[in-house]
Amino acid sequence: MGATHVTVTIRNPAAPERHWTGRFLVDTGAFDSLVPRPHLEAIGLEPLARETYVLADGSPIELDTTVARIEFLSKIVGGTLVFGDADAEPLLGVTALESGGFEVDPRTQRLKKLPAILLKGLRRPRPRRGGGPTASRRR
Question: Which domains does the chain have, with CATH numbers?
Answer without folding.
Answer: 5-113 (2.40.70.10)
